[in-house]
Amino acid sequence: MASKWRQHLERWKRDKTRGPTTELHGQVGLSTRSVKDGGPSNRSSSPPPSAPLALSSIQPTSADTGTTLHLTLPLPRRLWDHAYDSLKDEDPKLVNAYERLLSRELGRGGLSSTDEVSQKNEIDQTNPETRQTQFEQLLQVGLEKTKKEAAVKQNIQGAMDIIDSLKGCIDEAVRLAPEAAIPWTSVCFALEILTNPITEAVANRNGISYVVSRMRWYWSLSHLLEENPSGNSSGLRGELEDKIIDLYKNLLSYQMKSTCLYHRNRLLVVLRDVVKLDDWESTLESIKDIERTIERDYDTFTNSEINGHLRKLAITAESMYTDIYRAIQDHTVTQRYMEQKEKDNECLAALRVTDPRDDKKRISASKGGLHRDSSNWILEHNDFRKWRNNDDVKVLWIKGDPGKGKTMLLIAIVDELEKIFRTEPSPSTVLSYFFCQATNTNLNSATAVMRGLIYRLCDQKPSLVSHLREKYDKSGQKLFDDENAFFALSGVLVDMLHDDSLSKAYIVIDALDECEKGLEQLLKFIVNNSSALPHIKWVISSRNRHDIERQLRLRDSGMKLSLELMGNAEEVSRAVNAYIDFKLHEVSSLQDNSKLKTQVGNIMRQKASGTFLWVALVIQQLENAERWDVLKVLEGLPPDLNGIYDRMMVQIAGQGGQKSQFCTQVLSAATVAYRPLRLVEMAVLSELPDEISSDSRNINDVVAMCGSFLTVLEGTVYLVHQSAKDYLSREMNSNSFSPKLNDVHRDIFSRSLRVMTALKRDNYNLEDPGILISDIKTPNPDPLAAMRYSCVYWIDHICDFYSDSQGPFKSTDGSLVGKFLREKFIYWLEAMGLIRQTGNAVLAISRLEILLKEQSTDHRLLEIVYDSRRFILQNVWVVENAPLQTYASALIFSPLNCLTRKRFQNEEPEWIRIRPRVDASWSPCLQTLEGHKKAVISVAFSDDSKLLAVGAGKRISIWNIKTRFQEQVHDTQSDIRSLLFSHDSNLLFSILEEGTIKIWDIKKGSLQHILKGTENTLTITTALSHDSRLLVTGSFEGELKVWDLGLRVLKGKFETRPCCSATLSHDSKLLALGFFDGTIQISDPAEIEPVHRMSNGEVGRFWIEKVITSHDSRLLASMSEGTVRIWDTATGLVQQTLGGDHNSLITFSRDSKLLVCQDYETLKIWDTATWSTKQTLPLDHRAFMAGHYIEIADFDNTGLYLDTNIGRIELANGAIDSTIIRAPDLDPRHARCYGYGLNGDQSWITWNERNILWLPPEYRVASGLSNSYVISSRNSPSTGLTDVIIAIGCSSGKVIIIGLNSSGPFDK
């Protein structure tokens, strides 16, 4: 069968050189019923149906040139050309959109920085042969894309099967029949859709699979018709040609629509204007109906051999369709799994603050390893066995004094449980654990406990991550960082533990007393869930603390194992004795003297008092003693921890001179630091001299001189135990110790500023201004290694110093802060981006500003700090994601009077020759809300102005205006049409494309109710009553619905004309509707029957763009074709006509005495009593010319201000105070470009596809405006060099011009 098809194609190629000549003039877009460009074009000139005109006989002439192009065109080529041109006549928008996409592909080989918005249609519109050549080129591009697709997806199940199914077919068609370019090009582009199936509707991709699999059959129809030139009837032949053209036209339309819809984000058009929301199944069924008709006609027209060939091709197509369908199913499963896996990993990476498994290994190593004879006694203890074997006992609490070995006991329990899981695996049983440590800020909070426990559960049982994803997908990183993090994460943990896949879970938490933040909430969580979750067993440990015991309230469901009780104390004593025997083997001076070893062991047993830590500290003392001095040293050691610590301090002081001073400095830094310090950080913060700090071995030696207070693991210095930190903190607050604890905070602050003087531009020597943080690898050696801690915590230390001292902010400290911010601020900000701590930079600088406001009179310093905070807030996203943009985008888009910009002006890139025009000063807009991956369709403020709802695609995000945090995210499942808040701000209404309304409870953060819409309708207008009881929706199809939101039912459904605007009066008694035919209707909302019906005077010509009632319900304002009319609602008569060229902005004041409307470049305020103009305010013509009007306006309660989408307008003087918060489109699809251009989401200026300059959202191309971005070049008279000039019409209404070095940013 394949060979027969190949023979047909070979014969076509031979026929091309000797076939009939057809004269083509102008376009080949012909109709079988009329001749274009030179022939009659009306219906009456066409041949009658009884004698159809065969396309093969048409020889059009050119009316424009008078010349004749003699071309030999096979019938298949002519039929496809005809179908293509006919479709262009019928649906020019669709074909134009499709050709723009193809034009983009044609431009791949040349220098192009054109984005899809401004992409011109490069497909030839006059010469069919030029178009044919272009399609042949596109076919080759498509084949290259197929090869690349195969290379990328060669390891993805299903994807290669799809490619293999089609590639051979396309290759064969191209080799044998290059004139088949038009249909096969569409097949190549369809391949991209089929290999990304989860992005498109199932019905659509199934239809594409069907059409693609039958392409051989479609092509063969015209070829076999050509092989049978006479047939049984010339009339039937003409009818067949018409039907084949009709079929081809439908096929092309189907594939064009699919391709345009797939690339919807690239086209940046309102697709409903180009691609209707089609019923894919019905469209495909129409194609099949035409196929069946053609098959019947072929049975009559052609011979049995040809019909046999068609049937065989149909069978092959069916087989291919089945193969493609199965491959898509496999690929869809794989693709969805990979997508979810990637999102899961992203979520877990954001969750992870530590891996408890690593903490367990570190703690065990720091204590010399787990000695089984000293810890395994717990596994045989009656309380432990009862807890393990009795389902009624949920909690085992192990408590004891410091140094009793509680942590090692819990490590032994964890190891035992893990051993059981390995030998008796059960997929429904899990274990999670966490080790609190007060000396590490990452491990000393209730939130950290939740994060660690959840991380371990997800790592063991990946399916549980779905519970975390529910909240993470809505809140992002803020889920883990904001003030409600513990409560949100504890809910996630409970959901995981309730998961049906779990039959039992063990949770182990060590050192509850070291949970310094949120301990009370953590204890409540344990108590509440130990009874609510019967299949969960808990093991916890802590010191003997009354507050912990009071809150735990263990009754029958829990057991308390006190290490100080008689029986337990004996077990601990035996364990300590075993530990002593084990540790004595490490004392080298005792190894050849068994008698001495026995003596030492006996003395240690008498003095140890069941304290492991005492033993460990004494062993370290003995290791440094000479053999003859061991007994003397041991007898001189006190039997308690504090006594040991006192002796260690005496020994440190006894070293004398610099050694003692160095140890004091190191111990002070270790005690005050917010996290364990790396050796190189310790050298800086303890101010060790250069001869020591230059070599990590020297630093390690100094740490070793600090008695046994500290230990070093993998280059990090740790306090040996929490009791050591407690002791040192007490000492540092006593009169006998210097420096005092609070003074150390200030010392670390000043030392941090000194070490950070080494900060410079491009600290990692990356050179690439647009490199993303994900692509940056920390160099070795790391130039920031010594100052990482300082960068993050310098502000915290000075703030904590003053929070304890309660004194005024010293001028000397102010000088240090001011000098650093003036000279190093921007380099510090880059460094914070490099070490992924930008969020802490925001918090730290804000904390410093608060401190200065309370305790400083240095207004100049406060001004610098304020400016620094504003600079960070404006640029936090770009610094966090592309740190080197600190010197490019962050500087050049800051206000002209920004102090940071002025001080670091010399750091602005030299390759930016012309800077964009920006505001003079900081605007009231504190921060732009980034992160929306779809175009923003709708935004809505709550009536209390506390929340902003943003609708993008199928996603609603709700932002807190005060904190600028994204508080909620909701998936609507369908595209959003508009958003509305209830007037009490408690509910959010999302109106979806198909008319369905989803009501969200803002306080609970959940979906409250769904009001089902009508399929295949487009909601285009909505109106909500002031009391939020009624909601009216009108569709393009003429369906009007009135919803009772109190009862949550459809109150009325009415069929009317298409309604384009609607409003409910303030008292909810009147419903005003504006229609596309130019009429207006005032009705009772319950009845819809018109009380009054009015017209704009030109029925059917101009539609009613907007209707609005005054607050007293007395007046109705309508806008149509630039004219505003005022109607009396009682009589339905027009009261006033306001001429001009208005847009749809109309609004009444709260007292109904004023009306605001906007015409070209002015905002007018009218007196509704006299209809005289009270005020005319000029507007920025640049915003108007860029297509950005004031679209939203409302009077404030005082009537003194008008709040608009471009800012607040003070009516007294017309001043505009811009307060916009925008959410940009960050769709990940992007287009290649060469030279300078914009990336796909238009957030970056690029150079040869590399991001070089980030555009803040308010400086981006206006969405959907094809003329809002231009690029050209000019010669600079002063330098003789060529500059590239980019002009951008922005969504904010601004126009910016940027001049760039034509050689690019990397030119030296």
Question: Explain this structure to me?
Answer:
It contains 41 helices and 45 strands. The protein has 1308 residues and is of the alpha+beta class. Strand 20 (1019-1024) and strand 21 (1030-1035) form a beta hairpin. The longest helix is centred in the N-terminal third of the chain and has 48 residues, at 304-351. The protein is globular.
Structural class: alpha+beta
Number of helices: 41
Could you give the distance between the termini?
A: 63 Å
Strand content: 15-25%
Q: Any idea what the shape is?
A: globular
Return the average pLDDT rounded to an integer.
Answer: 76
Radius of gyration: 39 Å
Largest sheet: 5 strands, parallel
Unreliable sequence segments: 1-71, 109-118, 150-160, 265-277, 1181-1189, 1213-1234
List the strand order in the largest sheet. Answer: 4-5-6-3-7
The percentage helix is 40-55%
For this entry, give a set of tags.
single chain; 1308 residues; alpha+beta; five-stranded parallel β-sheet; four-stranded antiparallel β-sheet; 43% helix; globular; disordered N terminus
Give the gist of this structure.
The chain is of the alpha+beta class. The chain contains 41 helices and 45 strands. β26 (1079-1083) and β27 form a beta hairpin.
Question: Would you spell out the secondary-structure blueprint of this structure?
Answer:
Layout: H1 2-16, E1 22-24, E2 69-71, H2 75-90, H3 92-106, H4 128-152, H5 159-176, H6 181-194, H7 202-213, H8 215-227, H9 234-262, H10 264-267, H11 280-301, H12 304-351, H13 356-366, H14 372-375, H15 377-380, H16 382-389, E3 395-399, H17 406-423, E4 429-435, H18 446-460, H19 465-475, H20 478-481, H21 485-497, E5 504-510, H22 519-532, E6 536-542, H23 546-552, E7 558-562, H24 566-584, H25 594-608, H26 612-623, H27 630-636, H28 641-654, H29 657-672, E8 677-678, H30 679-685, H31 690-693, H32 696-704, E9 710-713, E10 716-719, H33 722-732, H34 741-755, H35 788-805, H36 811-834, H37 838-855, H38 859-881, H39 889-892, H40 899-903, E11 912-914, E12 936-941, E13 947-952, E14 955-960, E15 966-971, E16 976-981, E17 987-992, E18 997-1001, E19 1006-1011, E20 1019-1024, E21 1030-1035, E22 1039-1044, E23 1049-1055, E24 1059-1064, E25 1071-1075, E26 1079-1083, E27 1090-1095, E28 1106-1109, E29 1115-1120, E30 1123-1128, E31 1134-1138, E32 1146-1148, E33 1154-1159, E34 1162-1167, E35 1173-1178, H41 1181-1185, E36 1193-1195, E37 1201-1204, E38 1207-1210, E39 1216-1217, ...
Helix pairs in contact: 1-8, 2-3, 2-9, 3-9, 4-5, 4-6, 5-6, 5-12, 6-7, 6-9, 7-9, 7-12, 8-9, 8-12, 9-11, 12-19, 18-21, 19-21, 24-25, 24-26, 25-27, 29-33, 29-34, 34-35, 35-37, 36-38, 37-38
